[in-house]
Amino acid sequence: MARYWYSMRWMLCFCVFHCLLSLSGARETPSFKYKAVNLGGWLVTEGWIKPSLFDGIPNKDLLDGTQIQLMSVTQRKYLCAENDSGTVSVANRTNHSGWERFSLWRITDSSFSMRVFNRQFIGLDKQGEGINLVAVTSTPGPSETFEIVRNDDDKNRVRIKAPNGQFIQVRTEHLVSADFSANSSWGDDDPSVFVMGITRTLQGEFQITNGYGREKATQILQEHWKTFIVEGDFKFVSENGLTAVRIPVGWWIASDPTPPWPFIGGSLQALDNAFSWARKYNVKIIIDLHAAPGSQNGLEHSGARDAFLDWGQTDENIQQTVDVIEFLTARYAKNPSLVGVELINEPLSPGVSLETINKYYKAGYDAVRKHSSTAYVIMANRVGQADSKELLPLASGRAGTVIDLHFYNLFLDVFDNMTVQDNIDFVQTNRSTELNMVTTSNGPLTFVGEWVAEWQVRGATKEDYQSFSKAQLEVYGRATFGWAYWTLKNVNNHWSLEWMIKNNYIKP
């Protein structure tokens, strides 16, 4: 009998503690850690996940954000936007770096504005009527619109038609002008001919929508949203030991069905469908703001037009992002499948300062709490030059917060020559240490929101991949909120958790 009353008293204390947490607006530590998978490449386009989406775009290698360099065939030197004067000349150098590269803004299939290193656009002087090339404006218009004319036999051999109807020619190393009107021989003696090299491409939401145009993009993307992720995928998730999905969305979803140019409507209905399927199969959902207005990292998965980072530069921009978070939380707060809202994905340091991200996270947290006292508020660590512990002071003072870390044994030179065992050791030591530093007894929960069983090892066997997967599951399983694999579906097999499970490479 004494044991019975002791047990009852313990249960009563637990219930009181639970109620106090609820009344304070906090949420207790989950009874189990979430095993999740990202639904990447669905509501925010990433071309590498499903490249065929871009197949029908004319000049698909010249989309928004494509970075090109132009070498004069007569001088064998690169066209360059000089830093000090804002003028364009052919520099006396044979290598191309920042000032010799141009980021394209696509106007039509063959006409573009060209942005240079200092964010200015190349144009003609005298409001487009002159012949001198300058880079002095941050807002492109007709005077900054050029046509790239490609040779039929060699697409990398081009001529650049200026707004005045003439072609750019290189007269000498330091004299470039838009006044060549002759027909081209396309030979190495033609001063209007350049060899175009592509040094970077982007295949994101902006590129696919502006590349196709609104009418065609609507057909392509709405079909993709209906077929890439379907109800059966949620059934698969549920039946294979997974308990949640992290769904990347773009900021334009809050303006559905008529989002601003060039984005198109329909992704909100797809997200609604996801919540219905999640409820049916007892799967939880983390809404992840993957693309913020202006781009928080300059990468294609942030909806960027080019590689420049413009998010968080103004109070208006931050408020616009907070409004998106509030819209999403208000819409799904009462849905039992909602478990968390991630305020932004992978803000890049140092482009996004700690002061800026803290300011936004405070406002974003309040926006979520305005509509939900139970949804976890997930704060992503900055990627790049940042301290993994830098969010602890902010997150520790707020109930129901989670810090998101992304772990890839990729993208850095340090991984290039690692062996199978080197990679496993790195996970068990370096990743484990970093996770431990962020995991505190009275602080926020921790979440490995992205990881993958892929690496730089060549010739790895199935058993090698299984060992690598097992090591990551063991270490990331210590995260107090859980983990999420990147991603469910991908044409690259090891990046696809669906493929990995079906082929017995991994068992969540």
Short description:
The chain has 508 residues and is of the alpha/beta class. Helix content is 29%, strand content 22%.
Q: What structural keywords apply?
A:
single chain, 508 residues, alpha/beta, 8-stranded parallel beta barrel, 6-stranded antiparallel β-barrel, 22% strand, globular, disordered N terminus
* CA gyration radius, whole angstroms: 26 Å
User: For the report, how would you describe the main beta sheet?
Assistant: 8 strands, parallel, barrel
Shape: globular
Mean pLDDT: 91
- Tally of alpha and pi helices: 11
Distance between the termini: 43 Å
* Biggest sheet strand line-up: 1-14-15-16-18-20-21-22
* Helix content class: 25-40%
**Total beta-strand segments:** 22
Q: What percent strand? A: 15-25%
What ranges have pLDDT less than 50 throughout 5 or more consecutive residues?
A: 1-28
Structural class: alpha/beta
